[in-house]
Amino acid sequence: MILSAKFITSAPKFTYELLSSHSQVAFLGRSNVGKSSLINALCKQKQLAKSSSVPGKTQLINFFEVLCKKEEKFSLIFVDLPGFGYAKVSKNLKEIWNKNLDEFLKLQTSIKLFVHLIDCRHFDLDIDTEVDIYLKSFLREDQEILKVFTKIDKLNQSQKAKLKKLYPDSLFVSNSKKIGLEILEKTIIDKALGL
Ligand code: GDP
Predict the structure, then answer these.
(1) 32 lines ligand 1 (CB under 6 A)
(2) Ligand 1: which residue has its CA nearest to atom 5?
(3) Number of domains comprising the chain
């Protein structure tokens, strides 16, 4: 379980100091997917992650040290990546995810898990498919992608069943209704530890 978390630093791009002996978990998703709310809920804090995503604003990568417990206490690093996919911005992923971010993701080898957040109401957008293909294009053997559908409170039972059938390995969460948060927390910890 997650005991507590604290902000460490923000960075615009990769530097070797950002690599750590702690396993890292990167959170990514379209702007407004519910990423900040979810990171705050997982870390049991209200203001840790902030919705930063204003188009044109400098996009920073935020790092949090997260104290966890599973038999023993240990730390993970949560990496909060800039939101992507403004409707009015070019669909070309390379233009949205600038060179710095691309370099960061490829060199930040401490990342053991990519948590790809997807709004359950818009589960098959091209941009999310492109992100999935992109991540898989450089994914190492010791890294995994976890698809997490957010705002699941917005779907009825049959819509949820349909989505589960399409993505059996994914997790469903709602921060508003506090659904799926415990299993997400456990899954993140286990996968970050390579269990
Ligand atoms: P971010 O831009 O991805 O960091 O998204 P935020 O965490 O700021 O959330 C974006 C919007 O979605 C806010 O208005 C939240 O209140 C709303 N939101 C976040 N989580 C949920 C959820 O589980 N269910 C619903 N219905 N809305 C949510």
Answers:
(1) yes
(2) 34
(3) 1
